[in-house]
Structures are given as C-alpha cells and as structure tokens.
Design brief:
Rossmann fold; 15 helices; alpha/beta; single chain; disordered N terminus; Helix Hairpins; globular; 3 domains; binds magnesium ion; binds guanosine-5'-diphosphate
Length: about 350
C-alpha cells in the first residue's frame, strides 16, 4: 500500500497533532533527541511500521506519564480506526492456528491487503513466550512488508492484556491495516476476551474429534461464528469430514447468537491452503449480513462498554499491585481468608480500603 492511502472523512492530521500537545508526543524533534517512546502520529497514520511499533510500546508502558501520553495518542488514533475486519482465532495448542494465519494472511497480502497479527497469551510469561515459535510458524508473513506481527504484552491481568490488545488493534487500524487477526491459545478465559474484541470468531478443531470436543469448552463453541476442522489433508481428509459432520450436529442444537448468521462448519488445511478461500468468503459474507442488519455496529458498541470496564479493572489492579506495601498486605489478607481467620467479605473490605474504596 502507498503511504498516503486516501481515507474518507478524516480529521486533518494537523488537528490530530494539535490534540497531542506535550513534549512526549511532539513530532518535530530530530531522531537524536527523541525519546524512544515518542510517537510521530503523522507517520503512524501514514502506515509507518516503526511508528506503529513505538506507539504500541507506549500503550504497553506502565509508567504513569507514559500512560497519559498513550491515552492522548489513542484519542488521536481512534477517529482513524474502525475500518478493519477483526477476526479472533482460537483452538488448542498445536491445532495449527499460526500455520493457518500465515497461509491466510499471505493470500490476503497477495490480494493487496495489509494484515496485522496480534496474539493474546496471558500465560506467555510462564511458558517463556510463544511468539518466537510463532514467528517461525509464520515464516511468510514475518518477512512480508504488508504484514505486521505483534505478541501480546507479556504480563498483566487477562483483562489488562486484552485491553492492551484492543488498543494495539486500534493503532493498527489507524495505521491503515485492513485485517486484524488475533490469535489466542485455547485455554482459560482468553477465548472470551478475544471474542469480545473481534467481529468474527473462528474456532479451529482437529480431525477425529469425538464427543468430548477436544478439551475446548462447550462455551467456546457457542462463541464461534465459524468452526473450521483444520489439517484436512492427506490421511486426515476423511476424518476431518467426519468431525465436521459431528460439529454441524452439535451446532444445530444451539440457538445462533444472530438471526442473520448460522455458524457454518468447514474443513480446511493451513498447510496446503485448501478451503482458505471459502473460509474467507464466509468471513466477508458474515460481515455483509451483520452490517446490513446493524448487528455489527451494535456488537462493537457493546464491546466498547466491556473495554471500558476492563480498563477500569486494570487501573484498580495496578493501583493495588503496583505498591509493595499493598502487595504484602494483600498476601496477608489472602492467607487469613484461606486459613479461615477472617471472612472473604471482610478480606475484600480491607483490600478495597487500601485504595480508598
Ligand atoms: N498436516 C497438517 N499439519 C499442520 C497443519 N497446520 C499446522 N500443522 C502442523 O501442526 C503443528 C502445530 O502448528 P501451529 O501452527 O504452530 O499450531 P498452533 O499452536 O495452533 O499455532 C506444526 O507442526 C504444523 O506444521 C495442517 O493444515 N496440516
Ligand atoms: Mg501458535
């Protein structure tokens, strides 16, 4: 994409910059004097990847002054966000998410689109970070000038990580990315968090499913806008079709979340690329239907409300956990509750009092 792709109805960049008074965000400093976290908004909006990367780093900062600068930056970026197709992708580790994203994303960039890939993995501090592994699984996209790959922040509460991912998504959109793919591990609550920031939620399954739905909780099936049985290649092809039939039956007993969309089940192979064209056609069909019915706009507004509360939760959490004395006090309260010395209600009361609630 050219750096000055036209976007209809935008505020002039000068106005956006005008909203960003303050030393941390001035755009005229020479690179020599510019602090690492300073963001050139004009470059960000023109799609500059280095500016985008710096902007994301700024939003992930925990320093109070940088948090304030990050909020200003987001305010400037938000009017330019909102146009991307947002797809969340989940499935158990090993189901082939990264491989599929690499293939699907490469098809899309070959079509002239710019793709951002984000990851939500609140456990990555414990596992040592999976994104390096993911980058090797996304060999094509990681060297594609029209793709941008970014791991989730490596720590924080799930709500906080998801809130940061959401901010990252908005920044990518402001930088002109057409599609944002968010990968999450099929564990814990992260699927719900990702479903809450996506327009379309894609659940990947393995062939040879069986009734137990492979450790994926039934609640996740209910979130799916599409189930794709992956690895439908070679010897697996027949088993994949059988699994797809099972999931179709499982979905039939659920009431679809939308009157204009019944989640389909398809078979795909991220390895061979089989079925990926049909899969993307479904994403676009879903988009067209929910746009026409007004449901997409409504869904996004609902997500904004949840985002706001996630931000509030995160700030409260940081207020509590950011203070060593508070941390020690909370550990003691927790122990006292666990040992039955005080009631959970009394413990919560004491913790709330620490932040003046
Ligand atoms: N046969 C086959 N293997 C695949 C396919 N997609 C991924 N794999 C393999 O499955 C393993 C896990 O893939 P990966 O994309 O890292 O899964 P993730 O953990 O869900 O991101 C790797 O060894 C891949 O080569 C596929 O479509 N067909
Ligand atoms: Mg992966």
């Amino acid at each position: 994409m050219g750096p000055h792709r036209a976007r209809g109805g935008l505020r002039p960049v000068e106005n956006a910059l005008g909203a960003l008074d303050g030393p941390a965000l001035r755009s005229h400093n020479s690179p020599m004097t510019r602090p690492k976290t300073q963001v050139d908004v004009e470059k960000l909006l023109a799609g500059d990847r280095a500016a985008l990367a710096r902007a994301i780093t700024l939003t992930e900062s925990r320093r109070a002054d940088q948090r304030a600068a990050a909020r200003k930056l987001l305010d400037a970026a938000m009017p330019h966000a909102g146009k991307a197709v947002r797809v969340g992708i989940t499935g158990v580790p090993g189901v082939g998410k990264s491989t599929l994203i690499d293939a699907l994303g490469s098809n899309l960039t070959a079509n002239g689109q710019r793709i951002a890939v984000l990851a939500v993995d609140p456990s990555s501090t414990r596992t040592g970070g999976s994104i390096l592994g993911d980058k090797t699984r996304m060999a094509r996209l990681s060297t594609d000038p029209n793709a941008f790959i970014r791991p989730s922040p490596s720590s924080g509460t799930l709500g906080g990580v998801a809130a940061k991912t959401r901010e990252t998504m908005f920044l990518c959109e402001a930088a002109g990315f057409d599609v944002v793919l968010v990968e999450t591990v099929g564990a814990g609550q992260s699927e719900t968090a990702v479903a809450d920031l996506a327009d379309f939620f894609l659940v990947l399954m393995l062939p040879g499913a069986g009734d137990e739905l492979q450790g994926i909780k039934k609640g996740v099936i209910e979130l799916a806008d599409l189930i794709a049985v992956n690895k439908a290649d070679g010897d697996n092809a027949a088993r994949a079709s059988a699994a797809a039939a099972e999931y179709r039956a499982a979905l039939q007993i659920l009431t679809p979340a939308s009157a204009s969309w019944s989640p389909p089940v398809v078979t795909v192979s991220g390895l061979t690329g089989q079925g990926l064209g049909e899969l993307w056609a479904k994403v676009l069909d879903h988009r067209a239907r929910l746009t026409a019915s007004g449901e997409l706009a409504k869904k996004r507004r609902g997500q904004d409300g949840k985002w706001m509360w996630a931000l509030v939760d995160e700030r409260l959490h940081q207020r509590l956990a950011g203070d060593a004395a508070h941390r020690e006090r909370m550990r003691r309260i927790e122990r006292a509750v666990a040992e039955g010395e005080i009631s959970p209600t009394a413990g919560a009361e004491e913790i709330a009092r620490l932040v003046g609630l």
